[in-house]
C-alpha cells in the first residue's frame, strides 16, 4: 500500500492543526508555567447545574434524545433568550441543540456554503472560522479591523459586500475573541442597515453575550431575524465548556437544513449535558453575575499593568481577553516573542498572528485566570520588557 496520507482527502491533509491548541499543550507540558492562553472560565460550574446532571444519571436518563435536542431544554432556552435579549424563537421548529458553538459553526457553514462561495469574516478572529468554510470549498474573505479599533464599520462592510458578489454569508462574532471588543445597539443598527441590502446569511456567534461590561448585549438577530442564524450557548456564561452545549436559532426553513448536518455529525448531544443545560436555562438566570464582576476586576488590573509597560490594548467591552500591541523597542515578531516568554519567563501568551489578518505584532492574554496568575504575568512581562528594551537600546 502506498503512503496512506496520499490516499486521504487532500483538502483535509492541507488543514493545519490549530496553533492555539498546540501552543496551549506546549504550555501545559511545562511545570510552573503561568498560562494565560486558555479561553475558558476558571470558575466551577454552579452546583445546582451539577446536581441536575447527577440526578439525570441516577434516574438513568442516559439514552438518545432526538437530534435537535430535548424539547424541555429547547423550551427553557427559548424562554431564557426571550427574557435576556427579547428574542422570540419557536423551540419546536427554530432551534436546535449543538455540540457547543464549535459544532454549531461547522454545521451551519456546511449547510449554507457551496463550492465557489465566499464568506466574509472580520479579522482578527477565532481560528476555526476559515478552516470550517474550507470544508465546503468556499473562500474566506477577511475584513481587517485593526485600523478601526478592531470594529467593523458600516463603510467597510458596504464596500466589501458591494465589490464581492460571491459573498454568501457574514460570520460575525461579538463580544469578540480575540480582542474583547463589542458593539452597542446603535452600532449594530448601522451594520444591519447595510446587511439587509444584500441577499446574504448573517451568522452571529454571540457565545460571549453574557460577558459584557459597559452596556447590555443586544443581539443582531433582533434586527435581522429573517437573515440571521444565531449561535449561543452555556460554555462561557455558566462555566460549562466541558459540557458542550450550544444553541442554533433562526428561521424554520434554515434551521431544518442545519439540523440535517447536525444529526449526521452527532446523532444527538449527551443527555446528561442536556439535563444540566435545562437546569442552567431554567434556574441560572443570574449565574453569570458574580463571574462577570470578578472578570471586570481582573481586566482592570491586567489592563493597568500592561499600559504601564507601554502595551496598547483596546479596552474590552466583553469576553475575557486583552489584545495587546507589542511596544516599540521590542521585537514585533509576536510568535517569536510568545515563544521567548514561554522559554525564558515561564509565561504562556498567544501570538496575535494565530488569529489572522490584523493580529501580527499583538499578543492575546486571557484573564480567565486567577488573580495570582494575573499579577505574576504582569511581573514576568515587566522583567522581559525591561531586559529586552535595555538590550535594544545598548545596541
Overview of the molecule:
- With 395 residues, the protein is of the alpha/beta class.
- It has two domains: 4-44 and 288-394, Aspartate Aminotransferase, domain 1 (Alpha-Beta Complex); 47-283, Aspartate Aminotransferase, domain 2 (3-Layer(aba) Sandwich), CATH 3.40.640.10.
- The chain has helices at residues 4-7, 10-13, 19-28, 47-58, 71-85, 100-112, 129-134, 154-163, 185-195, 220-223, 252-266, 271-283, 288-308, 334-345, 371-394, and strands at residues 34-35, 95-98, 118-123, 139-144, 167-173, 201-205, 228-233, 246-249, 321-325, 347-348, 350-351, 362-366.
- α9 links the parallel β5 and β6.
- α4 (47-58) crosses α12 (271-283), α5 runs parallel beside α12 and α6 (100-112) packs across α11.
Please describe the topology of this protein.
Elements lengths: L3 H4 L2 H4 L5 H10 L5 E2 L11 H12 L12 H15 L9 E4 L1 H13 L5 E6 L5 H6 L4 E6 L9 H10 L3 E7 L11 H11 L5 E5 L14 H4 L4 E6 L12 E4 L2 H15 L4 H13 L4 H21 L12 E5 L8 H12 L1 E2 L1 E2 L10 E5 L4 H24 L1
Helix pairs in contact: 4-12, 5-12, 6-11, 13-15
Summarize the structure.
The chain has 395 residues and is an alpha/beta fold. It is built from 15 helices and twelve strands.
CATH architecture of the largest domain: 3-Layer(aba) Sandwich
The DSSP helix count reads 15
Number of domains: 2
User: What average pLDDT do the residues reach?
Assistant: 95
Structural class category: alpha/beta
Low-confidence stretches: none
Q: Major β-sheet, in short?
A: 7 strands, mixed
- Order of strands across the widest beta sheet? 2-8-7-6-5-3-4
Structural shape:
globular
Instruction: Just give the CATH class of the largest domain.
Output: Alpha Beta
CATH topology of the largest domain: Aspartate Aminotransferase, domain 2
Number of strands: 12
